[in-house]
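pipeline/complex-builder :: batch 7 item 3
reading input block
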Amino acid sequence: MKPLGLYIHIPFCKKKCNYCDFLSRADVKKEDQTAYVEALLVELKYYADRNMLLDSVYIGGGTPSLLEGDLILRIMEGVTGSFALSEEAEITIEANPGLLDRDKLMAYRRAGINRLSLGAQSLNDELLHFMGRIHSSNTFIDNFHLARDCGFENISADLIFAVPGQTIELWIDSLKKTISLGPEHISFYSLQIEAGTPFYGLWEKGAMKAVDDETDRRMYHEALEWLKNKGYGHYEISNAAKPGYESRHNLKYWSMDQYLGIGLGSHYYINGTRFSNETDLEEYIHISERVTGEGVCDKIFVSLWHPSPWAVWHHRNTEEDEISEFLFTGLRKIDGVSLSVFEERFGKPITAVYENSIMKHSKAGLLELNWKEDRLRLTAKGLDLFNQVLVDFV
Amino acid sequence: MDQYQKHIRNFSIIAHIDHGKSTLADRLLETTGLVARRDMKEQFLDNMDIERERGITIKLQTTRLRYRSRDGEEYIFNLIDTPGHVDFTYEVSRSLAACEGAVLVVDATQGVEAQTLANVYLALDENLEIVPVINKIDLASADPDAAKAEIEEVIGIDASEAPLISAKEGINIEEVLESVIRTVPAPEGDPEGKLKALIFDSYYDNYRGVVIYARVFDGVVKAGDQIRMMNTKKKYEVTEVGVFAPGLTPVEQLRAGEVGYISASIKQVADARVGDTITLDNAPTETALHGYKKLQSMVYCGIYPSEGEKYENVRDALEKLQVNDAAFVFEPETSTALGFGFRCGFLGLLHMEIIVERLEREFNLGIVTTSPSVIYKVVMNDGSELMIQNPSNLPQLTQISHIEEPLVKADIMIPKEYVGSIMEICQERRGVMTHMEYITESRVALHYEMPLNEVIYDFFDALKSKTKGYGSLDYELIRYEKSNLVKLDILLNKDLVDAFSMIVHESKAYNRGRFVCEKLKDIIPMHQFEVPIQAAIGQKVIARETVRALRKDVIAKCYGGDISRKKKLLEKQKEGKKRMRQFGSVEVPQEAFTAVLKYDENK
């Protein structure tokens, strides 16, 4: 079995941002955060299998850096107590500028964390304020240097563009300032106005105008130029990295590799089955308490492909699901999917399944089918119209 | 007069939509004990769902009531309900012809409406006695004296004795019955004479075949008789006769003066046409009853199965509807844009809407309808004439001498404050006013001659919208007139979409073209390329809009937890695509076809 990825969700924030619809709460007391970590540890223990090799761990959120350093240490102890961690494993924590200090960063290092993903979002203070972020651009720059100082050699920065009010110049300015810090990895997302967020309310009322698509795409393609010129390889629709620093964990999502998810509302994909966990915090903790009481974790063998007590949904993928998801995720990668891997995995050539759709979108200039290079990939235009192509593959 | 005839009263109820006709009919049924209150649905006599929802009667329901009068005698009432819309004038006139009197219901809060007036005139044409009734007296805004005055002024009959009632609250319902006994004469006619019976309605019953609603004027009809339809010349053997009590109740015979049903194993209603005269085959009467007309479709449109719907299903449903509706005609046709479908003819726009709605709701069909059209008379250079109701069939302009269009006489009644705005919309629709009169101090009748194609487009909606619902309209065809008409085509990405083609007056072409282009621009989704939408007359483009090319359609973020959720979004997007019609390279949502027809006050 290939090494597994592990995702751990921390559903807490100091404050919800105006654009965010992720599963996270801003009003949780310290002791409840501790209770949550205890519950997480039970779930980790439930899966304990020293023969299971992990080569990536990703602590995401929410805002994992809200937690005290010792809690992160305990979580990582839980991980190493349950699984075998490969020496080369990529271990990432998401952190928000403004919540980091030397003690926390050193605790992360001690915990074995070797990659930091910093939510910079913008380097313009007005926009940061408008988005409801708690930090300023200087805080991000200071935190970045501090992380370097503490020994982080693999840092990623998240940026958001097409924010209402943002001009192309402002966006490129943020990008250039970020690049000048020299992070190994940069994610750059076009803002989506999601239902249920304060931004959505403003937009619905007409009080906020979304950036038009033409501007959005100019921002995107100009950013790609800048990144390329500064030595970043564009490897997924919204991600670029210096060579060798592509996110190993995230690539599992886009290559249909297996990963386990732990924590509130986490999703995982094991053995052709997709699972998702309980999303109610109290209920999640309650399940862990029940499992402890019943001694379920002392069982000798827990099958990974049966829903755990925390799972509330699972779906065994049909072959059709597997194929469509393989493309839905794989075509997000700039180098697309390998034709031979497809054929090996599904026992038939890709053209046997999607000949018409591939032809149609190749003709429209959105897709490129290259037998010589063994790839099916989106063209530059296809990157902008990803959904138009994928609609025919789902 | 024979003894039995003395105690019969045959009458109709005339009222404007919403003025309470059906409610009054319900109360009469209740008062005479025919239907217990607890068994009653609202508006018992309107038994089609669509009718009940819209509060209008389309199909007649006739019923027989027994009532012991205050004079101690028992009377039989045959209540012949009439449809209440402008499209069904002929059916109304035949129902009235079966009666000796009509109850005129006037809303005490609104007065007399154009529709009512038109039907009163029909009743007077048939020499009916009018029994005025003032309804809705329970409402705070009721003004019964004004309503009476209006009846006297407008119709010229005495309304001083008119019962003041509330059909809704059941107030003074018996007064209506007493008034009918006093005012409406008993039927006459010779039961020993040769059979002469009027067909005033019919419907198809799965067991009996066509059930004919008939009024016997002379003679007797009974099971076993060989009957003959004097206009269609068809012959049948009567299997059953009966009365409406209110269900079908067989009786031995129907005699002169009586109203009832006749069944004779007839396969479709078109064989028992409303207005036709029934007589005995072996002892026929010499003269048929006057007033027979073959129903003529005035409005046509294409009906096509929508994406994923079967042609056969649509055909079966149309056939079923036709069995019961002699006024509805259809034949197969093909559109390059919509494929195989049907050309359907209707009495008017409401008739069309009802059929379309029944196809969708009763038969659960997915259908697309094309722009309604009237019948144009195309006079060719060689003098020959063509009747065209599908714009796509219009011959080359070079072969055409001229085109004529149907003109109607439109009678519009409105409160006086709307005169200005209604004259404006009539003028916009090429109406020519023949005269205008003040019916009362506050109510005005406008009389126009107007092209039918303007009336069926959006006139009724515009009238309702501009008068807050108080305006009413009645129209009838008067003649064909030479007109400067052009065929307006719509092109999507340079390809002509025949289903959007329409024939319009040249002076309207520019506005209509621009309107359709603007509507389509809002409805057609962005494509990967720019989609020009053009309105053209022949080769000449007169309006243009552009659907901009889609620049961005991409899920920005997709990680572990997003895969199932985002995939669902794509699946939804795919479902939306499925419901679209593909015209060349352009995908058009089905609602586009109806949207381009809707009245828009701002356009």
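note: Chain A has two domains: 4-254, 320-393.
queue -> next item
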